[in-house]
Amino acid sequence: MPRNDDIARIRATLLAAAEAISPFTPGAVEFERKEERGDPLTAADLAADEVLRAMLPVPGEGWLSEESVDDNSRMVSERVWIVDPIDGTREFVEGVPEWCISIGLLEKGVPVAGGILNPVTNELVIGSLETGVEFNGEPARVLDRAPGNGIRVLASRSEIRRGEWDRFEEAFSVEPCGSVAYKMALVAAGQADATWTLVPKSEWDVAGGAALICAAGGAVTLADGTKPSFNQTTPLFPNFVAAGELTRSWLVDTCLGKKG
User: Fold this and answer.
1) How confident is the model over 58-83, as pLDDT tens digits?
2) Does residue 126 belong to any structural domain of this protein?
3) Where are the beta strands (DSSP E) in 108-229?
4) Structural contact between residues 65 and 83, judged by C-beta atoms closer than 8 angstroms
5) Based on the domain organization, do 156 and 251 belong to the same domain?
6) Which helix (H) or strand (E) holds 236?
């Protein structure tokens, strides 16, 4: 299938999912708590998930979503869609405009195309390894700067509150931001230099952003510098680092004390 067809499908689906969410008001929406970790879940998450599943996979393509039951049938599919209907549901519930809809497409376990849309700020980042990345319709690339050149790293607010970023305050600028996928989209669009987390994240948090960052000339690795493996039986990463290659290597080698 030509990659432009995939991009068109991603774009149309993001817009349709945003439309499905639009009747719900961020900051004034009812929610319940998921049993496993207590994360919030809203009817908007489920409405967007229904749209994504109806529009994205065709027969023979796999599916993995935060809001769908995973039956592992995706393990035999060459092409797999990995989505998060609302990444940053906590921000959505609190009315913080740092949540998004995230779509990633894998081929043989490699993120090859993706799209991330923040419906509040109208920021759309979309692209593929073959076509590159667009940010609101304009070509975009990752920043890739050496240390000392004003590097800005997007970080989890909860990690900042716990003091996990205090040791980096003299090395670069740390800026709080919500959704994991949204942070990755901003890095892919050249709006920040890097993002990372040292706590586990699910593949649906990372797949769309990983496709976009790689398509925009950057790299996504684990904290030890190795490449993450997507479409795992247990779709969970222990951590990740996402940036332009020069910046990522410096972060891994110097700040995280590993060799990339």
Assistant:
1) 999 999 999 999 988 999 999 999 99
2) yes
3) 110-118, 123-128, 132-135, 138-140, 152-156, 173-177, 194-197, 201-202, 218-221
4) yes
5) yes
6) strand 236-237
Beta 100-107 vs 79-87: how paired, if at all? antiparallel
The band of 259, judged by pLDDT with boundaries at 50, 70 and 90, is: very low
**Rg over CA atoms, the chain:** 17
Do both 175 and 127 map to the same domain? no
Structure confidence by residue, pLDDT tens digits, 207-237: 999 999 999 999 999 998 899 999 999 999 9
132: left (phi over 0), alpha (psi -120 to 50) or beta: left
Identify whether residues 10 and 67 lie together within a single domain. yes
Q: Say how many CA atoms lie within 13 Å of 116 toward its Cβ.
A: 32
For residues 133 and 158, state if they share a domain. no
Residue 170: count other Cβ atoms within 10 Å of its Cβ: 6
Number of domains in the chain: 2
Same domain, 91 and 209: no
pLDDT digits (tens, 9 = 90+) for 95-118: 999 999 999 999 999 999 999 999
CATH number of the domain enclosing 201: 3.40.190.80
Bridge-based pairing state of the strands 194-197 and 152-156 = parallel
Residue whose pair of structure tokens reads 């490699």 in the numeric block? 110
Q: Residue 231 in contact with residue 173, Cβ under 8 Å?
A: no
